[in-house]
Amino acid sequence: MIEPNQLQREVASAIFGYIIKNNLRPGERLTERMLANRLGLSRSPVRAALSVLSQEGIIEIRPGDGWFVRKLPSKQVERRFTTASDQDELIERMLKDRFLRVTGVYFSESEFIARYGISRGILRKILIKLSQEGLVERSRGNGWRFSPILSSRNTQLASYEFRLAIEPAAIMAEGFAIEPEILDRCRTEHEQFLAEKIAGVSVARLFELNAEFHGMLAEFSHNEFFMQGIATHNRLRRIVEYSTSDDQQRMLRSCQEHLSIIEAIERGERHWAATLMERHLKTARDRLVNLFSSDSSPD
User: Which of these CATH numbers, 3.90.1150.10, 1.20.210.10, 3.20.20.70, 1.10.10.10, describes 84-150?
Assistant: First the structure.
């Protein structure tokens, strides 16, 4: 068995987390395109990570059909691929500090080791994860830089203008076709959040739920341009969303709006679903742009 490199292990962990989080059972299908869009990666590292999971017997490839969950993992394998929750908390702190401009665009590993009181090994794991999500990238020498963010009122307005143009259109796309299992799973997750009133749910998971919903509908359009556009904007707005997702009532309303769109799609009422999507985005736009002063400017 060839030993996977660090990137392959990190991506394999992310895919493994998706399998566990969504309670995928043996025989359920995984597509490279769907995983690449959800993780914000190209298909090449996703394919390599799937091979790692295949070597562990978690998934299998069926010639002509693709990748499928093969068996539920043992505790030993689960420990190997499960990431620590404290890393997610550190990521939230780092992204919030960036949003609030406590930290600058450029930073060094030594600077963050001192600021957050962590080891170089843990920091590098976090930076690899942030890099995979398009949030940081290598800079000159041994430094790093945060990716551009939607950090001003004008960029927020421009972002929502773009999303209002493409997300309702994706629902009305000629090639739009749902995958019932994926849609049903998304509905179930939203219903669980509403039932539990999202108590104790991490900011990271709240963002993922929202991003997965919008990404799912783009994938149903079977239009690569819609999918790429939504994936890009999910990455750009992640830092802002991490820093403004503490309004529980707003998150509950957002979940309810998502469910209304899902229900309209299930009834075959795509025109109504597109209208609801437009209303949903306008509501989110109006709330977010109020967080920014009119004279703020992006980095």
Answer: 1.10.10.10
194-253 per-position pLDDT tens digit: 876 655 566 667 777 888 899 999 999 999 999 988 887 877 777 676 666 556 677 888
Distance (Å) of CA 214 to CA 67, 151, 230: 23, 21, 7
Which CATH entry fits the domain spanning 6-79: 1.20.1090.10, 3.10.450.40, 2.60.40.10, 1.10.10.10?
Answer: 1.10.10.10
The dihedrals phi and psi of 107, each to the nearest 5 degrees, come to: -155, 160
Quick one: CA torsion of 230, 38, 211, 79, rounded to 10 degrees?
Answer: -160
Structure confidence by residue, pLDDT tens digits, 147-174:
776 566 777 788 889 999 999 999 999 9
